[in-house]
Structure formats: C-alpha cells, structure tokens
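Section 5.1 Outputs to date
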Amino acid sequence: MFLTTPQFVIENELGGVLITGKHLRSFDSYKERMDEIDSNLKIPLFTALDQEGGLVNRLVSYSKQWESLPSAREMRRMDSTQIHKLAKKIGRALKDIRINMNLAPVLDPSKDHRQSNSFMEESRRSWGHDTTNAYKVRAFVNGMRDNGIICVSKHFPGYDSWTNSDLQIAISASPKEKIEQNISFFKTLSKDIPVTMMSSVHFLRISSRPAVFDANIVKMARKFSPDMVMLTDDLWGTSLRTWASGKTQIAPRKTYPDKDFRRLVTAIIDAGNDILMISYTSKAKDMLNIMMELSDKSSKYKKRIEESAARILKLKYKMGLLKL
C-alpha cells in the first residue's frame, strides 16, 4: 500500500509501504511520517520503491541530480563493474531516504514469442531476452545489497503481454516452451534475489487465471528457493479486478464490491503469495480483516498465513531489520 498517515500504518501494524515520487517531492513531510512510524511500530517496515532507472525513476522526484539514470536496456550494455558501481551509488541514495526494498530488476523478456520486441523492451525496462546478462543483473543486485537494499525480481513468469495489466486486461498466448525459457532468467538469479513479484498477466496456454492467482505458477517461482518471498503486483490493477468480478470488463475507477475483493484476497492466499500490495490504501485494512476471518474459521488458512508471516519475518531478520 502507499505510505499514508502514520496512525493508519501503526494502528493496523502494516508490514510494508510503497513509496512514490509524490512522497519524495515533499521530503520533510515524508521524513516526519517515517520517524513517527519507526518509533511506534514493533516490527520495522519494508519500505519499497520502483527504482529501475530510465522511465521508471523515482529518485528524480527527490533530486534532479538523478534525472539521467540509465534504463535496464542501457545498463545491460555496460560492463558489470560499471553497473555495480552505479547500483551502489543509487543504493546509498535509497538508504539515505529510508528505502530498504527496490522493486527491480525487470527480468521480463525483451522478445515476445513471435520474436518481436516486447512491451518491456520498448519501454527500455528489460534486462534481456535470456540469461546472457544474468551476471550483469547480479552486479546491479549486489550493488544495492552493499547498502542494505534488497531487490525484487519481476514479473514472474515473464511479462510478455502488450497491454498494461494496471489499466487493461492482460493476456499472453505464449506457448509453454517460451514461458519456460522466460522462467530460466528468474531461476538463474533466485539465490541472489530474495523476493519475486508475480505477474498479473493471464497465460492462456498454462492457466485458467492470471499468474498471481495460480498456485502452480507460484510454486514454480518458489521451487528454486524455498524461502523466496512472493509479492503481488498492485491488486488495484484493472486486470485483477476484472478477474475478481467474474466479468469481461469493468469501469477503470470502480471501487471493489466487498464480495469481489474477498474473492480476490482469498485467491491470492490460496495461491501461496506472501505480501499483498495495493495502491488503494484503505483496502489494506480490509485485506487484514479478510485474512483474520479466514484464519479464525479454518486451520488450513491459519497455517497458510502463518507460513507467509514466517517467510517475511525471516527475511526481515536477514536484512537486519529485526533484532533478537
């Protein structure tokens, strides 16, 4: 969820917040809110931000000195030493503004199954077509880690739809063989990146629902690293809200009916995801209430939610956020 009032975060004991350029443009206010949250929460937050570079550059809202940061497509043309040095510099800036999680790198393919440039390639966000650049991505990840910033690989099993799932229904007709090729990039870096963001795309050839709702696809991501923390993309996205409604289309800004939202959250938990992210801030409380109800009524759901809590706490401990 987006960072909101400290009272909302503290009262609901949220586990993480998403920081945007809007927060960083009002940095003094942002810092005051973070100070209040830090002094009142027992378990420190994940503070996440999208800092890919290129078109997805949140740091520029904090300072214009960051406005020319290279995109993933540009970085993959650099050597690994340059990438590590740059990522370390960016990581230091993120640490200074209280960020500990970077929603990058994008491991989505640069080519779709027809060998045309993908949506992520055209937007300069992709690190490449296969595992060739894995060592360069590792340099980026290690540079971030040098300053205590963990990275998040996205969007498993490889976003190759030409529509934006936040705004439209996103469907991929990629054959199973191409999907497996895309997954290999995530597999190669699974020991380096402790969090994976699931895709909201519906891969027609392997599933009847968007990837984030499919337990088998979530298991594919986790089998390479049992402690992998699975993160959803924005649950306010049009593609996911449409699926939850059982309809073929919905009004872009329509609020979630309670039954649709409950169906969505339950499906997310059933699939094995750990962290639920939504840009509709007030819905964070509803998510918690639904999870509590599921846990109270069913030992199966209680165990499932406790497993996710354990993975999240273990990661926070490894990051040094928790002290025993």
